[in-house]
Amino acid sequence: MSTPRLPPNYCRTLPGKTPARDLSDPEPTLTVRVSWNANGMAPEQRYVEWPAKCSPRSSIACLWASRPAETSAGRVLPDACIDIIWDGASIFVAGPDTGPVPIIPRPGQFFAGLRFLPGRAPAFLGVPASELLDSRVPLADLWGRASADRLANQLASAASPEAAASVLDHEVAARAGTARAADPLIDELVAMYTTTQPDAASAVRFASRAMSVGERRLHRHCRAAVGYGPKMLERVLRFQRARRIARGTTSLALVAAMAGYADQAHLTRESHRLAGTTPSDLFKTSRLSGS
Predict the structure, then answer these.
(1) Where are the alpha helices (DSSP H) in 79-160?
(2) What is this structure's pTM?
């Protein structure tokens, strides 16, 4: 199970739009327009995800619904994905993260989302992924106020988070016909880094030679489609691989070896950078929560 990609504080806006709230200010109180029941979610179930039914699965990783813990903060970890999220009051895009983002607990809230596969969101959102890096951006800044308000009204009428996610599914499906084609270079790069384990120090050179593409061109395409360069992409995908492996073992040395890290110390350094905690604490929590 993945972690829902919720805003660290509030949404920022893109350049040229209405200035975002100063994130050093106290966190605003959001007025929740809807009160969802948790259809299909058991009381102990914090997060569920399922395949898209309408939008193209070649571009969509999953739909998801979340009921975050009300008494303790969680965290969002980098996964190379971009999400559209409805929180009961606002609809926004969670851009690609390069480090952990805290989830601030808010009693009684549910969340619904649609997650794009790595490299696929810009075709639907209309901006390079690099403009969304480490940000939460109101959907109105990308699709326009009229489209965002229409969608928000539909979401506000949804009976549950699952129903709201279905609304997002239908909206993205309706835009699939006009979405730009995916970048084949990035599809190949993501597939390569997902299925192989190049040496971390030479991962970009490895991909450049294997794909017969110059490193600068590869970096430019990767920033536009994913939000950051191929080196960061490889780090994130390697760490996601480690998290999956950790579900089946308690040996950090084995996780490090199977995920392609140089040694356990390498895994520990990356865990601090990408998750803000030690791998032992992170993987223990993941196993207990089923994430």
Answers:
(1) 121-125, 140-143, 145-156
(2) 0.84
3-state secondary structure of 29: coil
Task: Note the pLDDT tens digit of each residue in 111-129.
Answer: 899 999 999 999 999 999 9
* Chain centroid, CA 76 distance in Å: 8
Q: Which amino acid is at 280?
A: S
Cα dihedral 16→221→124→191 (10° resolution)? -150
257's tokens: 């070896």
User: Rounded to an integer, what distance in angstroms lies between the CA atom of residue 53 and that of residue 166?
Assistant: 8
255, exposed or middle or buried, with CB in 10 Å at 0-12, 13-18, 19+? Answer: buried
| Residue range 223-277, pLDDT digits in tens | 999 999 999 999 999 999 999 999 998 899 999 999 999 999 999 999 999 999 9
Q: Are 161 and 119 in contact (CB under 8 A)?
A: no
Domains of the chain with bracketed CATH: 47-178 (no CATH), 184-289 (1.10.10.60)
